[in-house]
Write a structure and sequence with these properties.
CATH topology of the largest domain: Transferase(Phosphotransferase), domain 1
Strand content: 15-25%
Radius of gyration: 31 Å
CATH class of the largest domain: Mainly Alpha
Length: about 575
């Protein structure tokens, strides 16, 4: 086995058969850590029934389903119980949403490091990571609350069905690498980037859970954190391409490589593997020069891996194939029976030839007469149609009106309205201070009772100069012709102003000056309609709130200038 990054592990993890692994002092060596990580097949949210605790560890507190933390988080189901801590699915009764909770005693040897890791991760505020929502020490307990994504699927589950499609694997490694590079720029490492820590949302976006926290819960550290995370990304890509774990031991429901063979390239393990992605995986893994034959240097940091991905030819998604719906039936014309007489059962069809065409002089005269009548009818119809169009044009010119802004919006009056589906969203906060990044999905979930909310501000309605604005950037899936937007609002009053911008990328921190303003509108009610003078073609669109009304204290926030958004819809 190739030498792995040096790390120190001081906990006992459970292997796939629930037997405890006892950590020893000499496991601080690289090979010892590699073996531990390879044998650990339990994901952070995998359901475990009564795991075995290591001798001498602090016992977890006696908690049960229905127990409530901070009079807010109601525990529902224990999904992990390991080495003195437990993880739960819970309900935030204040915001009426599911959350995840990690719990451990306040006197646990890792309680301090878990709190520090959770607070550091929360400050990052990058929506590509599952967000830490709360980190508290209370009543002899330390608990960390994080997002719960019921519609997301672990990479572990995806690989159980087979390797990923080429474009999907490319998207996974691209998004995970870019996210980890951003985290390392802020001094944060994951150190436990396993298939169970990588999730694909229903919109196709890849997200990472457990940044810094998962390692802190298990006492994992590393002298070379960037190398450790880079190699982990290489292992994820290797597994995505081959459905095999790139080491000898089986792990995460995947079979390992054959014994005594060493690390071989993915395109040698499975036929049809993309050559560029195969090479990328080998460059990320610690493989003792396995890439030397291809003259490509190894990648030792996520930034280097981002650069390597950028140098590759872009892998485009496969062309969609038309599949007829189950109830689709060919018409008699498509079946080639148009004009044929339907036969009754038991009746033999006679193969009589069709009647010959009219060849007599009477037939020729009849054909010419019919042709002349058709030409006359077409001429009369064309004249009437042209006359109707002229009348309609004159009426439109007479009734033409101007908007209060002085912009002519009648150019889109007869444009057919087509809804544009939303494929993904994330909060936009160029100042590094998000509102409620984990709730953006509530703005287009089809439920008018759920909202994404801003914080309450002391000054308003215009949020500047304290806050230039708050908003959400939406992914339409591909370049679409955007003409208008409809937005549901929760608070009424003086006044809400919203602008639409066409963005070049799906970024939470891109400069507003790099975007193209489409349109803006103001309302004091609960529904806002924004229409563009001319449709704009874009894939990413920013909904940017620059003014919000004053509203009193409620169950969600204190009194102040604030707004909540739901039912965002785009049309083209």
């Amino acid at each position: 086995m190739a030498e792995r990054s040096t790390a120190a592990v001081d906990v006992a993890d459970n292997s796939g058969d629930d037997e405890p692994l006892t950590a020893k002092a000499d496991q601080s060596t690289a090979d010892g850590v590699a073996q531990n990580l390879e044998r650990d097949t339990e994901s952070d949210e995998a359901q475990v029934s009564g795991g075995t605790e290591s001798p001498g560890r602090v016992s977890p507190p006696e908690l049960h389903s229905g127990h409530k933390l901070a009079r807010r988080y109601r525990l529902e189901e224990c999904v992990t119980r390991l080495d003195g801590f437990s993880s739960w699915r819970a309900v935030d009764e204040k915001l009426r949403r599911a959350v995840g909770v990690h719990l451990l005693p306040a006197d646990h040897s890792r309680a301090r490091s878990v709190l520090a890791a959770a607070r550091s991760s929360a400050l990052l505020g990058d929506p590509r990571f599952v967000q830490v929502l709360d980190a508290v020490e209370e009543n002899d307990l330390v608990y960390v609350v994080h997002e719960w994504l019921p519609d997301a699927t672990e990479l572990t589950s995806l690989l159980a069905a087979g390797p990923l499609e080429v474009h999907e694997a490319y998207q996974m490694v691209t998004q995970v690498t870019q996210a980890m590079a951003a985290a390392h720029r802020e001094g944060l490492a994951h150190l436990r980037l396993t298939p169970g820590a990588v999730l694909r949302s229903s919109s196709g976006q890849w997200r990472i859970r457990g940044l810094a926290v998962n390692a802190a819960l298990r006492g994992i550290s590393s002298d070379t954190p960037q190398r450790t995370d880079t190699e982990a990304i290489g292992a994820l890509l290797y597994a995505a391409l081959t459905q095999r774990w790139p080491y000898e031991d089986d792990a995460y429901g995947l079979s390992g490589l054959p014994k005594d063979v060493g690390l071989i390239a993915p395109d040698q393990v499975r036929a049809g593997v993309h050559r560029g992605l195969s090479e990328l995986a080998m460059r990320a893994l610690a493989n003792d020069g396995a890439t030397a034959s291809r003259q490509e240097p190894a990648c030792t940091t996520p930034e280097e891996l981002v650069k390597a991905i950028g140098e590759m030819p872009r892998i485009r998604p496969p062309e969609p194939a038309f599949t007829a719906p189950p109830d689709y039936q060919r018409t008699t014309y498509q079946q080639g029976t148009y004009g044929r007489q339907t036969l009754h059962p038991g009746v033999t069809q006679s193969l009589a030839p069709p009647p010959p065409p009219l060849q007599s002089r009477t037939g020729k005269v009849l054909k010419w007469a019919v042709s002349a009548l058709l030409i006359a009818a077409l001429g009369l119809g064309s004249w009437q149609l042209a006359d109707a169009l002229m009348d309609r044009s004159e009426n439109d010119e007479t009734n033409k009106t101007q908007t209060t802004d002085g912009n002519d919006k009648n150019s889109n009056k007869h444009r057919p309205v087509r809804p544009i589906p939303i494929r993904g969203a994330q909060e936009y906060f160029p100042d590094g201070k998000p509102q409620h990044a984990g709730d953006v999905g509530l703005t287009y979930d089809g439920d008018s009772s759920t909202y994404w909310r801003t914080y309450s501000y002391n000054d308003g309605p215009v949020l500047a100069p304290f806050k230039q604005g708050v908003g959400i950037i939406y992914d339409l899936g591909s370049d679409r012709s955007l003409a208008s937007a409809s937005i549901g609002l929760n608070y009424i009053g003086d006044h809400t102003t919203v602008s639409l911008y066409a963005a070049d990328s799906f970024s939470s921190s891109a400069s507003l000056g790099s975007m193209k303003k489409i349109a803006s509108a103001t309302t004091s009610g609960r529904q806002l309609k924004i229409s563009a003078d001319k449709a704009v073609k874009t894939r990413y669109v920013l909904v940017w709130i620059t003014a919000a009304p004053y509203a009193g204290k409620d169950e969600f926030s204190s009194a102040g200038f604030k707004q909540a958004v739901t039912d965002v819809k785009f049309t083209g």
